[in-house]
TrEMBL record:
Residues 6-115 form the HIT domain. GO terms for molecular function: catalytic activity. This is Histidine triad nucleotide-binding protein. It comes from Desulfuribacillus stibiiarsenatis. The active site is at H101 (tele-amp-histidine intermediate). Pfam families: HIT. Gene3D superfamilies: HIT-like. A motif (Histidine triad motif) lies at residues 99-103. InterPro entries: Histidine_triad_HIT, HIT-like, HIT-like_sf. PROSITE patterns: HIT_2 (PS51084).
């Protein structure tokens, strides 16, 4: 864990969140500024700064995040109509928190291209 990372502090319970899922590798919670009716952030419990910092040993986290996204999509009723999983990487990619995270978006028609 990183002592100055907001997502690490959320995982540790130092900052409150509206949790929707947790296991030994993944923590998921509602985004405080939702961009869709359903907007969940999925984060690994290991501090990894971005997708560019992933190593082969970290692939289990990515796998578990996607499996958690499936469970959450079913739980929140967006599995049938569809949803989007997004990872922003780097400043120009829209990453605002330096902790690997994925956005699970759904609950409405998501246009393409995204922006």
């Amino acid at each position: 864990m990183s002592t100055d990372c907001i997502f690490c502090k959320i995982i540790e319970g130092q900052i409150p969140s509206k949790k929707v899922y947790e296991d030994d590798m993944v923590y998921a919670f509602h985004d405080i500024s939702p961009a869709a009716p359903v907007h969940i952030l999925l984060i690994p419990k290991k501090h990894i700064s971005s997708a560019m910092e992933l190593e082969l040993a970290d692939m289990e986290y990515v796998k578990q995040i996607h499996l958690a996204a499936q469970k959450i999509a079913k739980q929140l009723g967006i599995d049938e109509k569809g949803f989007r999983i997004v990872n922003n990487c780097g400043k120009d990619g829209g990453q605002t928190v330096s902790h690997l995270h994925y956005h699970l978006l759904g609950g409405r028609n998501l246009n393409w291209p995204p922006g």
